[in-house]
């Protein structure tokens, strides 16, 4: 059966490509999305469709086109039939679990389930270990500093302050230090906490008149790790408490580690005394991983999951998702789920298709192309967009161009202004704001933008 | 197309049909309503590819034909412009001209060839009075899950039990079941109608007084009355076997006045915490039925209710919202609450009416 399966799949793919050219894009994506050839039986082709609305319309409107297209590609075809299939295979897989899980069990679901991984004493997640930590030029300094701290905690770099934008592995690094120290010095008490939790604890302790127990609680550890410290800006009391806690640690040579998404100098409203104390130790940043590191990260993740993917596919993922490791993981997970469902390796084309929605539009599109697509969409002369005119329809198109360039392609305001007929950057800012506001109460505009974005892909 | 009909008629129907137009879909034609003039009727059709509707309006047809125009605009026109008189509709070059004594409107049409058909459901069918259908759905639909994660419970489940049509919905924290006697039912293993479509069904047939023919197969269900045909996709899935979780016996029983309990719950609400938790304590010996809640920021409260209680002492917590919800379906003055231990669901039902049943999972933190 296997070869036949491949054949029908290929056959339908070819037919879809053919059909796509003969009908409008909107029609194609509405009616032919999620269709497939389920099987072929003595010349009868069974096409799977997601619901009865689609089946009805395919029969009424596109039957001739479909029959003809298939007949051209597959000469043994005698007839075409349509059947309704479930589109979301994932849900099918889950169904039996749901059945067994009667509502009685759901009592537990209401309770916040404690994550089994995380030990309640130190809050550390054992998943964050240096075994799975990739070192590249983007984070080697931070890594080296972390290793030095593990060797002699509390003496060398105290405090250790690490910053970098979201999803680059800050939490992994600092929890890794915690885990290593726990392993190496079992007698030391380690504690990991997010600033938010720290602040809530503080507020609660004041409410219940237990300020002292709070102090005791946070001063008894040998290593304190505080994550996401950037939110401390507005919390004055928390800053004060953190300051005292910090002093206790510092004076008794106990290690303290912070992470933030900004350099301490740029954390708004951070008290000077804290700033200078953060600077006393070691401040390092983690930047975005470069291509090779991204590839290495993917490989390590796959090894954890025990899955093999083609080098080609890995390279594609690494090159198409840039910057954020979390997004990289997300994309990989998406592919892994499909891999497990289909129980076979995916082709590059399938991967591309899967990742299509995950990715931001390509940033290297020329400004001219954007103008061209938008002006074509609104049936305007391309040149008119650049001209100094205040005709309503042209102004609208121009504003949309500006908005798209800014939002989707990250072009700077002055550059947009310059390219679109020498406008001031404030004009551009105004246009972007206007479209943004209009979008809130104009579904028509929203739809137009959606369609435009499809055309950019 | 050329015809004349009553504004009042067309106005109501347009607002019904407009709700079901496809919003935010890639295919713009789905925003529109298709007007079909044929025989003695003007038909209005719309669909969002999950629901489809077609309604008939009696009209004087001079020329048959069809035209598709934007639903929201048509709705806008008819909800504002006209008084009670007759309206003339005519399609001219694919556009729609709307004429009354005092106004003339030309509305841009869309290519009606692209407007999809609506599936005619072939399958098992039965008839039910619209009041009963609406009562059944209304009694339970608020309990469905609103999330899309498990489509089988974000829906209303309809099946038969002897000569009852049974409506059930649950979000796995509470469950509502309503039985309605209907004559001449075929056996129905189970139909799952998506929650999102349920509210439209309620709106379309909520005011109706006619007999509704229901027809279904494993993919689709339709409801048709004299002048409305509504069809919805059904969810292909298995509803959890809920009967096994309905407690067979109880250890504590209480009967309270519905209004007393409602008032008490509303006060408890003020003091409930962010989990909406309200605690219930029942002690038959001391004749205590106590509702309490506490919140660090606000304070705490206790309310004692007059109740007829039998059985064992019990103490448990629950989400008051779930409790409040079920009173819209309890029409009697007093409600019976049955408990079977602090960790099994409590069962609420109207006194001396076995057609409605409501289960709430306790919340013991």
From TrEMBL, chain A:
Region (Domain III, AAA+ region): 123-339
Record localization: Cytoplasm
Family as reported in the entry's similarity comment: Belongs to the DnaA family.
Region span, Domain IV, binds dsDNA: 340-457
One cellular component (GO) term of this entry: cytoplasm
CDD domains: AAA, Bac_DnaA_C
Name of the featured protein: Chromosomal replication initiator protein DnaA
From TrEMBL, chain B:
Purpose of the protein: Confers DNA tethering and processivity to DNA polymerases and other proteins. Acts as a clamp, forming a ring around DNA (a reaction catalyzed by the clamp-loading complex) which diffuses in an ATP-independent manner freely and bidirectionally along dsDNA. Initially characterized for its ability to contact the catalytic subunit of DNA polymerase III (Pol III), a complex, multichain enzyme responsible for most of the replicative synthesis in bacteria; Pol III exhibits 3'-5' exonuclease proofreading activity.
Organism encoding this protein: Candidatus Nomurabacteria bacterium RIFCSPLOWO2_01_FULL_42_17
Keywords recorded for this protein, A-Z: Cytoplasm, DNA replication, DNA-binding, DNA-directed DNA polymerase, Nucleotidyltransferase, Transferase
Chain ranges of the DNA polymerase III beta sliding clamp N-terminal domain: 1-119
Residues annotated as domain DNA polymerase III beta sliding clamp central: 127-241
BP terms from Gene Ontology: DNA strand elongation involved in DNA replication
Family membership: Belongs to the beta sliding clamp family.
High-level lineage: Bacteria, Candidatus Nomuraibacteriota
Protein name: Beta sliding clamp
GO MF assignments: 3'-5' exonuclease activity; DNA binding; DNA-directed DNA polymerase activity
InterPro entries documented for this protein: DNA_clamp_sf, DNA_polIII_beta, DNA_polIII_beta_C, DNA_polIII_beta_cen, DNA_polIII_beta_N
């Amino acid at each position: 059966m296997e070869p036949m399966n491949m054949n029908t799949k290929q056959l339908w793919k070819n037919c879809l490509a053919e059909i796509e050219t003969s009908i409008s894009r909107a029609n194609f994506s509405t009616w032919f999305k999620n269709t497939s050839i389920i099987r072929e039986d003595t010349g009868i082709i069974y096409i799977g469709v997601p619901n009865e609305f689609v089946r009805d319309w395919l029969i009424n409107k596109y039957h001739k086109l479909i029959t003809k297209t298939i007949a051209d590609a597959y000469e043994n075809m005698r007839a075409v039939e349509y059947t309704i299939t479930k589109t979301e295979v994932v849900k099918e897989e889950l169904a039996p679990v749901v059945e067994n899980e009667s509502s009685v069990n759901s009592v537990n679901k209401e309770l916040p389930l404690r994550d089994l991984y995380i030990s309640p004493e130190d809050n550390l997640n054992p998943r964050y270990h240096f075994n799975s930590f990739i070192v590249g030029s983007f984070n080697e300094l931070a890594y080296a500093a972390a290793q030095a701290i593990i060797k002699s905690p509390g003496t060398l770099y105290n405090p250790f302050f690490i910053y970098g934008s979201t999803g680059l592995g800050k939490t992994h690094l600092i929890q890794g230090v915690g885990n290593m120290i726990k392993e190496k010095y079992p007698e030391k008490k380690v504690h990991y906490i997010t600033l938010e939790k720290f602040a809530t604890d503080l507020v609660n302790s004041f409410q219940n008149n237990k300020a002292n127990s709070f102090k005791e609680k946070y001063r008894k550890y040998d290593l304190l790790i505080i994550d996401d410290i950037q939110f401390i800006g507005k919390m004055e009391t928390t800053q004060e408490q953190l300051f005292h806690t910090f002093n206790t640690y510092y004076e008794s040579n106990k290690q303290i580690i912070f992470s933030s998404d900004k350099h301490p100098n740029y954390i708004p409203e951070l008290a000077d005394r804290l700033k200078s104390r953060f600077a006393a130790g070691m401040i390092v940043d983690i930047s975005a991983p470069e291509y090779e590191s991204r590839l290495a990260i993917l490989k390590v993740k796959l090894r954890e999951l025990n899955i093999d993917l083609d080098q080609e596919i890995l390279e594609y993922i690494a090159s198409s998702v840039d910057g954020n490791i979390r997004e990289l993981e997300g994309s990989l997970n998406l592919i892994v789920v499909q891999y497990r469902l289909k129980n076979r390796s995916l082709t590059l084309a399938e991967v591309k298709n899967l990742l299509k929605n995950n990715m931001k539009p390509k940033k290297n599109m020329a400004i001219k192309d954007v103008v061209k697509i938008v002006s074509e969409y609104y049936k305007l002369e391309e040149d008119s967009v650049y001209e100094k005119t205040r005709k309503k329809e042209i102004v609208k198109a121009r504003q949309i161009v500006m908005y798209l360039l800014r939002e989707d392609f990250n072009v700077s305001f002055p550059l947009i202004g310059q390219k679109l007929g020498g406008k001031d950057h404030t004009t551009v800012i105004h246009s972007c704001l206007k479209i943004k506001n209009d979008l809130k109460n104009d579904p028509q505009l929203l739809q137009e933008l959606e369609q435009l974005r499809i055309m950019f892909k | 197309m050329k015809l004349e009909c009553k504004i009042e008629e067309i106005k109501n129907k347009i607002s019904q049909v407009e709700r079901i137009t496809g919003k935010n879909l890639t295919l713009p034609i789905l925003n529109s309503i298709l007007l079909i003039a044929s025989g003695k009727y003007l038909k209005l059709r719309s669909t969002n590819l999950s629901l489809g509707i077609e309604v008939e309006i009696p009209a004087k047809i001079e020329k048959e034909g069809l035209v598709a125009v934007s639903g929201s605009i048509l709705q806008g026109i008819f909800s504002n412009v006209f008084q009670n008189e007759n309206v003339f509709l005519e399609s001219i070059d694919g556009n729609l001209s709307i004429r009354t004594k005092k106004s003339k409107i030309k509305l841009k049409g869309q290519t009606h060839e692209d407007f999809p058909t609506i599936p005619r459901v072939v399958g098992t069918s039965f008839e039910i009075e619209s009041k009963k259908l609406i009562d059944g759905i209304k009694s339970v639909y608020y309990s469905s899950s609103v999330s899309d994660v498990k489509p089988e419970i974000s829906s209303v489940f309809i099946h038969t039990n002897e000569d009852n049509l049974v409506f059930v919905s649950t979000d796995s924290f509470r469950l509502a079941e309503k039985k309605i006697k209907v004559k001449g039912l075929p056996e129905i293993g189970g139909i799952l109608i998506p929650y999102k479509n349920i509210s439209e069904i309620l709106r379309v047939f909520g005011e109706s007084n006619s007999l509704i023919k229901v027809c279904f197969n494993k993919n689709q269900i339709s409801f048709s009355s004299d002048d409305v045909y509504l069809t919805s996709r059904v969810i292909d899935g298995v509803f959890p076997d809920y009967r096994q979780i309905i407690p067979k016996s109880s250890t504590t029983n209480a009967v309270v006045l519905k209004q007393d309990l409602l008032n008490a719950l509303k006060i408890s609400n003020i003091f409930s915490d962010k989990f909406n938790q309200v605690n219930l304590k029942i002690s038959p010996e001391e004749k205590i039925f106590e509702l309490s809640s506490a919140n660090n920021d606000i304070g705490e409260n206790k309310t004692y209710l007059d109740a007829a209680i039998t059985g064992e002492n019990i103490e448990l917590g629950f989400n008051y919202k779930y409790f409040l919800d079920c009173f819209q379906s309890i029409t009697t003055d007093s409600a019976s609450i049955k408990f079977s231990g602090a960790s099994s669901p409590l069962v609420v039902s109207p006194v001396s009416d076995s057609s409605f049943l409501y289960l709430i999972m306790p919340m013991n933190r």
